[in-house]
Amino acid sequence: xxxxxxxxxxxxxxxxxxxxxxxxxxxxxxxxxxxxxxxxxxxxxxxxxxxxxxxxxxxxxxxxxxxxxxxxxxxxxxxxxxxxxxxxxxxxxxxxxxxxxxxxxxxxxxxxxxxxxxxxxxxxxxxxxxxxxxxxxxxxxxxxxxxxxxxxxxxxxxxxxxxxxxxxxxxxxxxxxxxxxxxxxxxxxxxxxxxxxxxxxxxxxxxxxxxxxxxxxxxxxxxxxxxxxxxxxxxxxxxxxxxxxxxxxxxxxxxxxxxxxxxxxxxxxxxxxxxxxxxxxxxxxxxxxxxxxxxxxxxxxxxxxxxxxxxxxxxxxxxxxxxxxxxxxxxxxxxxxxxxxxxxxx
Length: 346
Hints:
It is built from eleven helices and eleven strands. Strands 6-5-4-3-7 form a five-stranded antiparallel β-sheet. The longest helix is centred in the C-terminal third of the chain and has 19 residues, at 321-339. By secondary structure, it is α+β, with helices and mostly antiparallel strands. It starts with a helix and ends in a 7-residue tail after the last helix.
């Protein structure tokens, strides 16, 4: 590659990094005079690369938004970051909204890479294994995600067609649990990706209350005229986690645990439990330590005794009575294991 062509491509790479680049800065980076920099810019413009001139004291050149993406100039590290990001996105379900777009994008990046770099990146991808199974994807389609994101960013009302889940699902939190489709108008506060799913939280004007919606259950989204002011208080992520923790399930569990709210929250996922300081101090033991009340909604109780035991703190089950029996059964099995007693067959 001749030096002038190489420098023109280097100029393009510098401009693609963003911001305004002064003529003096570009001349220094390219090792040429300022007049030559202007000539290189003319070459890019002739190739339909949207370079614009910025006047003023801090003026220079920058890439303007265009109808076509200019050729990408990726370093080795940048190419590896892009491909690994696409792989990780597919594993977590975060990019499944684009369908096969992640795979085609990766193929396009690989196709334009130099052969030396392509073989090295293929070696990384072929030798990479994961310790966890791929997440079940419940990501939305781009036709839903993009208008929802636009409404969130510009604080605009949003019309959606939503299919709710049955009671006990993590669909529209606080709703009636109906599985039918309905039209909703929402003031969207924010988008949240959690555990392989996308959620939008906001004010549901049809019921006059805050709700959390799964984006994979939205089958149509349209930004409406007007604006709204998001309320103060918890951020979107906190709202979604609180909504998941308080969604209607078969069992409503209340447990008092000795310790501070911060200590207990560090051991219990926010999407599972709501932790608050208790009004009373429990049994009076452990002077200087308070108690917290933990509320959990669950379809099944069999996993809760092990979770409570893992807290390694005194606790009292307030409800339901069935959970007390399961905790006693676990305690008996642990005692048998400590004594080396074989569990009864049966």
